[in-house]
């Protein structure tokens, strides 16, 4: 069974091919307003791994893409999450309309509301399908695991997906926090052939 991006995660070095996946770039956050990547044009899939993202203030991790101008590409998305309190007293699953957009142009939430306390962070996997296509809309999906921002600690698992309503190639991507800077964390970008 091919390991794809997981093989790179285990053995890859930036720019070195391990078969179908290539680690293209790594960014390490240090109180950054945003982190941006130029998207490659020669891969059918681009995957980002966001590792231990910690916001400066409690907030949602967000992203948006560009087709060559500003980061305001039209997006339609949907979101749901599952949660479980550390006390074991509450657990459940929710549709998240506040994290969804219907032909919106705002930055898109793609993870749970992460606390700014030192032990709270989020890990996210985001995949873009055929971002350099000049024919079709661009589909994407994300899955995150994080610890909530306020009150009793609880674990969150968010699932968010959608598409950018453009046939223009995507040229760049920007990651931000909904409130304040990205205090710390690592973002890795892979190209999948």
Q: Could you list some keywords that capture this structure?
A:
1 helix; mainly beta; 193 residues; eight-stranded antiparallel beta sheet; 12 strands
Number of strands: 12
Strand content: over 45%
Helical segment count? 1
Instruction: Give helix and strand order, one letter per element, not per position.
Output: HEEEEEEEEEEEE
Largest sheet: 8 strands, antiparallel
Q: Looking at the structure, what is the overall shape?
A: globular
Separation, N- and C-terminal Cα atoms: 16 Å
How would you write the strand order of the largest sheet?
1-12-3-8-9-10-5-6
* Helical content (DSSP H or I, runs of 4+): under 10%
Structural class: mainly beta
The count of domains is 1
The chain-level mean pLDDT equals: 89
Radius of gyration: 16 Å
Describe this structure as you would to a colleague:
With 193 residues, the chain is mainly β. It has one domain. The protein contains 1 helix and 12 strands. Strand 5 and strand 6 (91-95) form a beta hairpin. The chain is globular. The mean pLDDT is 89.
């Amino acid at each position: 069974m091919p390991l794809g991006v997981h093989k790179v995660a285990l053995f890859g070095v930036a720019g070195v091919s391990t078969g179908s996946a290539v680690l293209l770039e790594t960014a390490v956050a240090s109180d950054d307003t945003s982190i941006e990547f130029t998207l490659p044009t020669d891969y059918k899939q681009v995957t980002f791994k966001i590792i231990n993202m910690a916001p400066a203030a409690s907030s949602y991790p967000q992203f948006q893409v560009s087709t060559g101008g500003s980061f305001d590409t039209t997006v339609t998305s949907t979101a749901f999450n599952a949660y479980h309190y550390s006390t074991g007293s509450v657990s459940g699953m929710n549709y998240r309309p506040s994290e969804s957009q219907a032909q919106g142009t705002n930055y898109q939430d793609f993870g749970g509301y992460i606390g700014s306390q030192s032990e709270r962070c989020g890990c996210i996997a985001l995949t873009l399908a055929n971002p350099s296509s000049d024919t079709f809309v661009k589909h994407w999906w994300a899955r995150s695991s994080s610890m909530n921002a306020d009150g009793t600690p609880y674990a969150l698992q968010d699932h968010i997906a959608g598409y950018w309503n453009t046939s223009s190639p995507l040229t760049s991507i920007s990651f931000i926090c909904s409130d304040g800077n990205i205090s710390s964390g690592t973002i890795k970008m892979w190209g999948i052939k």
